[in-house]
C-alpha cells in the first residue's frame, strides 16, 4: 500500500531551512495554503514534528494536517500535536481484526495502535477540540469484511458532525503497483496542489515519489514561479484529458480510485451503517474483479 520499501530516494526528514523557506514565502500570500506535513514515511518519527506544526501555525497556515499509522501516537506525542495546534489528523486503521491488521501492517501491534487512537481522541476533546480526526481504511475484501462492526464501534468514540471515516481504494502509486484499472478521468492534482519532497524538489504529485517529473526546487525558485511555470502549465493541461501522453500518468489510477472513495460522517443509524457497509463491500469486490490480470493484493 506504500512504495516506501521500493523508493530509491533517501527517507529523511525535511531540513528546517527548507521548511522555513516554504513558510516565509507562503505567509506573504493573500491566502496562505494549507499544509499536509508528511510524505513518504511516518511523520511521528520526526522528533521535531510538534515544533514544525507550531511554526506553520505561527506563519498563518490555515490548516495543518498529518497522516499517521498510529503506532507512535502515545500520550506524549498526542499532547504535543494537540498543543501545537494540529488541525486534522488522519489515522490509518484498516480494520478491527487483529490478525488481518497485523498481516497488513507488519511489525505493528494492533492493540497498541487502537489504544493510542482512543487515547488521542480523549486528549483531543480537552486540549484541542477543534482538531478533526479522520480514520482511514484502504479497501480490500479482508479489510471491509466486518466494516459494519468497525463503523459502529468508532461511532461511539468519534465526534458527531466533526470527525469522519474515509474508505479509500487501492491505487497504483504511479504504476509501482497494479490494482484497479487505470482510466482517462481528468486529474486535478496540479490545479491547487504542490508536492514538495524533503530536499525542496517539487514533483508531479504525491505518487511521484522518485521525482520523475521535476518542476524545480524551492531553494532556487519561488513556489509561485514554479506553480505558474511553463512546465507545470503544460502538464496541467494534459492532465485534463490527455493523461495517456504522460509516462508517469498513463498507468496511474488515482483519479479513478478517488472517484470510488467514500467519506462517512456521524451519527449514523444502525440501518445506515448496515447499508453503507454492504454497499462498500460489494463495490470493492466488483472493482477488484475488474483490475488488470497482473494485479494482486
Describe the protein.
With 297 residues, the protein is of the alpha/beta class. 39% of the residues lie in helices and 13% in strands. It has helices spanning 16-26, 49-58, 75-84, 98-104, 110-127, 147-155, 189-192, 223-227, 230-241, 247-250, 254-260, 270-289; strands at residues 35-36, 64-68, 88-92, 132-139, 164-169, 195-196, 201-203, 214-217, 262-265. The strands form 2 sheets. The chain has a 6-stranded mixed β-sheet with strand order 1-2-3-4-5-9. It has a 3-stranded antiparallel β-sheet with strand order 6-7-8, with no helix packed on it. Strand 4, helix 6 (147-155) and strand 5 form a beta-alpha-beta unit. Helix 2 runs parallel beside helix 3, helix 3 (75-84) packs parallel to helix 5 (110-127) and helix 6 runs antiparallel to helix 12. The model has no long low-confidence stretch (mean pLDDT 90).
From the spread of the alpha carbons, the general shape counts as: globular
Cross-sheet strand order for the largest sheet: 1-2-3-4-5-9
Rg, Cα atoms, Å: 19 Å
Question: Could you estimate the helical fraction of the residues in percent?
Answer: 25-40%
Mean of residue pLDDT?
Answer: 90
Assess the beta-strand content as a share of residues: 5-15%
Stretches where pLDDT is under 50 for at least 5 consecutive residues are none
Query: N-to-C SSE series?
Result: HEHEHEHHEHEHEEEHHHHEH
Q: How many alpha or pi helices?
A: 12
Distance between the termini: 9 Å
The major β-sheet equals: 6 strands, mixed
Output the structural class: alpha/beta
Tally of strands: 9
Amino acid at each position: 500500500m506504500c512504495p516506501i520499501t521500493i523508493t530509491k530516494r533517501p527517507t529523511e526528514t525535511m531540513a528546517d531551512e527548507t521548511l522555513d523557506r516554504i513558510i516565509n514565502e507562503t505567509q506573504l500570500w493573500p491566502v496562505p495554503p494549507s499544509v499536509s506535513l508528511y510524505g513518504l514515511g511516518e511523520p511521528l518519527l520526526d522528533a521535531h514534528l510538534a515544533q514544525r506544526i507550531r511554526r506553520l501555525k505561527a506563519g498563518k497556515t490555515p490548516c495543518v494536517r498529518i497522516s499517521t499509522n498510529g503506532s507512535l501516537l502515545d500520550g506524549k506525542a498526542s499532547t504535543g500535536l494537540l498543543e501545537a495546534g494540529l488541525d486534522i489528523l488522519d489515522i490509518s486503521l484498516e480494520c478491527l481484526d487483529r490478525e488481518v491488521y497485523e498481516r497488513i501492517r507488519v511489525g505493528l501491534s494492533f492493540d497498541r495502535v487502537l489504544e493510542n487512537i482512543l487515547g488521542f481522541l480523549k486528549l483531543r476533546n480537552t486540549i484541542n477540540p477543534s482538531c478533526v480526526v479522520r480514520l482511514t481504511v484502504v479497501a480490500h475484501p479482508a479489510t471491509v469484511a466486518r466494516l459494519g462492526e468497525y463503523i459502529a464501534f468508532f461511532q461511539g468514540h468519534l465526534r458527531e458532525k466533526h470527525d469522519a471515516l474515509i474508505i479509500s481504494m487501492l491505487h497504483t502509486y504511479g504504476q509501482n503497483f497494479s490494482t484497479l484499472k487505470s482510466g482517462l478521468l481528468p486529474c486535478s492534482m496540479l490545479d491547487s496542489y504542490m508536492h514538495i519532497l524533503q530536499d525542496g524538489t517539487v514533483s508531479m504529485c504525491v505518487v511521484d515519489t522518485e521525482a520523475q517529473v521535476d518542476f524545480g526546487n524551492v531553494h532556487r525558485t519561488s513556489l509561485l514561479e514554479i506553480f505558474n511555470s511553463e512546465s507545470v502549465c503544460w502538464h496541467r493541461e494534459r492532465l485534463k484529458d490527455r493523461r495517456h501522453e504522460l509516462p508517469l500518468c498513463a498507468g496511474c489510477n488515482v483519479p479513478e480510485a478517488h472517484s470510488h472513495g467514500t467519506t462517512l460522517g456521524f451519527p449514523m443509524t444502525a440501518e445506515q451503517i448496515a447499508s453503507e457497509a454492504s454497499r462498500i463491500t460489494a463495490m470493492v469486490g466488483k472493482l477488484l474483479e475488474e483490475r488488470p490480470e497482473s494485479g494482486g493484493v
